[in-house]
Amino acid sequence: MNVAIIGGTGYGAVELIRFLYNHPNVTLTTIISHSNSGTSFSEVYPHLSDLVNVEMESFDEDQLAKEVDLVFFATPSNVSKHQIPKLIDKGIKCIDLSGDFRLEDHELYEQYYGEEMAEAKYIDQAVYGLSEINNESIKGASLIANPGCYPTATTLGLIPVLANDMVERKNIIIDAKTGVSGAGRSLSLNTHFSEMNENFKAYKIGNHKHIPEIEQVLSKAAEEEIQITFTPHIVPMTRGIMSTMYVDLKEKQSTNQLIALYEDFYKYHPFVRIRKEGVFPQTKEVYGSNYCDIGLYADQRTGKLIIVSVIDNLVKGASGQAIQNMNIMNGWEETTGLTQLPIYP
Ligand SMILES: NC(=O)C1=CN([C@@H]2O[C@H](COP(=O)(O)OP(=O)(O)OC[C@H]3O[C@@H](n4cnc5c(N)ncnc54)[C@H](OP(=O)(O)O)[C@@H]3O)[C@@H](O)[C@H]2O)C=CC1
Ligand SMILES: CC(=O)N[C@@H](CCC(=O)OP(=O)(O)O)C(=O)O
């Protein structure tokens, strides 16, 4: 199958290329770059010299329709909503790494993304690509809204207890941390070395665009409206997300009972790994891989369950999950092209 990537010189794109390079069923024929068309990809990323010799092109839907079957969008917010409809109308499948098609409520989209949402007809076609949870609907989809990085780590951590009605719906607290690559490759003062080095900061408290996304996913899993308290932080590391969640258990449970529940919930899902009692996952343990690792602690004193969930933001939080979704859409083994081991140390 031939595929294209749009947003060619960003971090999501280069990470897609790393995995597609070893994918047995796919040929990357086209890389679209609005800033570097006409340039060879390896001129921008010399670590791929002699490996990815593709000359980047400008966006042209007619040309794409001749060349490819599926397109990955690794563009900033409010870009793919203009281009995806043109490709879908030509029968090309699309997987969007941005947030343009994730939310169902147009008012929330306008509030958090600052612009009008994509046309309703395309929003209705989009399937939210949380691979482990929406596997069945991903199979028949033409348009995947790939989840955000924080929502992936967070919802995979919370859904087993919410879907099994084991925790109170109120007071769900999510304390999350990300590495700097979560902000993409463009320069910004926030991620400048001297602002980040030896520093640790909270940001976008109360107005992060992942709040409505996480609430939408959790409300579906719990079958009632869920509200969360979500505080993101940025830490001076390149990759990784750790989401630490605090919820009130409805009834007393031991940590081991909950571990058994999570193991059972994810037993058919190779990319979710549950730690044993007393062991908690670290971001380095999933670095460069598509794993989401989860650790649990049921605090018998307070009745709270603490859930620690880690992913690599660029892999399970973006490009890896996008490839997992492509595999599911095409009926291929879910892990195809994604079996590289995590990099350690
Ligand atoms: N980084 C992460 O951890 C995650 C990112 N995402 C989402 O994935 C998407 C890509 O992220 P990421 O790769 O990190 O971001 P980057 O900023 O690194 O890359 C985005 C790329 O999109 C292209 N681009 C920029 N502006 C425009 C424009 N106006 N029109 C068309 N193309 C444009 C540029 O490439 P070129 O000039 O070559 O076209 C740019 O390099 C974003 O929506 C992001 O929110 C989702 C989950 C995690
Ligand atoms: C460090 C940093 O800035 N991280 C980004 C990650 C969000 C992201 O990439 O999300 P979407 O896929 O939803 O656009 C942020 O918090 O906005």
Main traits of this protein?
345 residues, EC 1.2.1.38, binds N-acetyl-L-glutamyl 5-phosphate, 12 helices, binds NADPH dihydro-nicotinamide-adenine-dinucleotide phosphate, six-stranded parallel beta sheet, Dihydrodipicolinate Reductase, domain 2, seven-stranded mixed beta sheet, Semialdehyde_DH_NAD-bd, Rossmann fold, AGPR_dimerisation_dom, N-acetyl-gamma-glutamyl-phosphate reductase, alpha/beta, 31% helix, 2 domains, NAD binding, 19% strand
Structural notes for this entry:
The chain is α/β, with parallel strands linked by helices and 345 residues long. It has two domains: 2-128, Rossmann fold (3-Layer(aba) Sandwich), CATH 3.40.50.720; 150-313, Dihydrodipicolinate Reductase, domain 2 (2-Layer Sandwich), CATH 3.30.360. It is built from twelve helices and 13 strands. It has helices spanning 11-20, 41-44, 61-67, 80-88, 106-113, 120-125, 135-139, 149-163, 193-196, 210-222, 255-265, 315-329; strands at residues 2-6, 27-32, 70-73, 93-96, 126-128, 143-145, 172-178, 201-202, 228-234, 241-248, 272-274, 292-298, 304-311. A seven-stranded mixed beta sheet has the order 8-9-7-10-13-12-11. Strands 2-1-3-4-6-5 form a six-stranded parallel beta sheet, with helices on both faces. Strand 3, helix 4 and strand 4 (93-96) form a beta-alpha-beta unit. Helix 1 packs across helix 12 and helix 8 packs parallel to helix 10. The radius of gyration is 20 Å and the shape is globular. The relative contact order is 0.14. The model has no long low-confidence stretch (mean pLDDT 97).
